[in-house]
Amino acid sequence: MPEVPPTFTARLRDILQLRFTPTFASLPAHTLSGISPANPFRRLVKILGYAAARLLGNILQPIRNPDKLHGAVWLYVVSQNNYESLQFVRKALPNAVFIAGQSKQIGRYNSVVNRISLRRKLLYYWQFPIVLGGLLRTEGRLAWRFFDLIFNAVGYYEVYCRALRHYRPQAVVFANDHNDDTRALLLACRREGVPTAYIQHASVSTSFPPLGFNLSLLEGQDALDKYRQCGPVHGEVQLVGMPKADEFLSSKNQTPAVQRVGVACNLLDETEALTAAVQHLTTNFPDFTFTFRAHPSDTRDFRFLQAQHPLLLFSNARQESVFEFLTKQDALVAADTSTHLEATLLNVVSVYYRFNTHANTDDYYGYVAHNLIERANTLPELAALLAKYKLHKPADIYRRATYYNATLGTADEGHSRERAVRLLNEWLQNVA
Length: 432
Hints:
Layout: H1 8-15, H2 22-25, H3 29-35, H4 40-60, E1 73-76, H5 80-92, E2 96-101, E3 114-116, H6 128-139, H7 141-145, H8 147-153, H9 156-167, E4 171-174, H10 180-192, E5 196-199, E6 212-218, H11 221-230, E7 234-239, E8 260-265, H12 271-284, E9 289-294, H13 303-308, E10 313-315, H14 322-326, E11 331-334, H15 339-345, E12 349-352, E13 374-375, H16 379-391, H17 416-431
């Protein structure tokens, strides 16, 4: 495994690796402002608000964990999607427990996730001027642009090291490898000698940090090829398919023609482009049933679409899983989202159409380049593709996904969970 960086600045650079990539720095302004305000004064206000509401709130907030954390296998999650992707591990391993940072929002699972106290994080903010100065020298203007994110990340590593020494978990299993708190816990595990495993929960990008877990369970060759582009691949790697898709692979869409179309959006997509696309599609296909689904982290209010299009259906991503949504569709229209892969696995026609003009995320996951899905560059092209599939939808679209899902078409198809649990158990026996 890579060594833990020896200095405050080097550790924070590792923890914030994704924040200093060209892809992140050039995100659309409306997306980036929700993460880090463009105005320096607003970034300062954000820091003060974070310190008052989050850090001081942690001191006052009691922690009553429902599970025993000492010696357990920790399943570390940073989102609702993470939780759902690791549920099968929790059910299979009797000593596995869900863990998150003290105030981390895990959607509908907030109340059932165990928490690591972050009260002591306040003790380490004296490091901030030192770290900021060091990163200004190495990263230049990006360090100043994201000084609020640097501030937020300070203290995670030290607090997590202390928690690991106190609870001594058997191992920590991750479903995310690039968030700042996740990276901090990974470095803390290396420092304290706690074994780590990673179970891929969504498509990966070549902008991600190098793979650095003791065991990595990836979905398919695509993920491994991309991680090899990120840097040296450390630890044992196994390809297990997509565990979260298991229960749905036996009910692939077999309708011979498209009648139901899902429109999925993410945080990068522009409201105006989404509005225009929905208008164009509903006008050109009045006999289709359209369902709109926003990303679970998207805080925009899309109710205006329902007012404009009373027959438009909505899928609530906080209540309905992506596979439950896709089982009700014959086709999907979306931009840069791993929902394309999940749709293809269920034999749902998926079309790549960009709802934004951000050049650095064009075909972000490489789905078009690897012929997983078709691309429409204009609304007329999009309508033409849907018109084609309105006449006939192939019954073997799912076969395009074999590069992404290692078990597709094998005896293990639909049994990725069993394969992942078996490999995880064997690994835990060796590291115990």
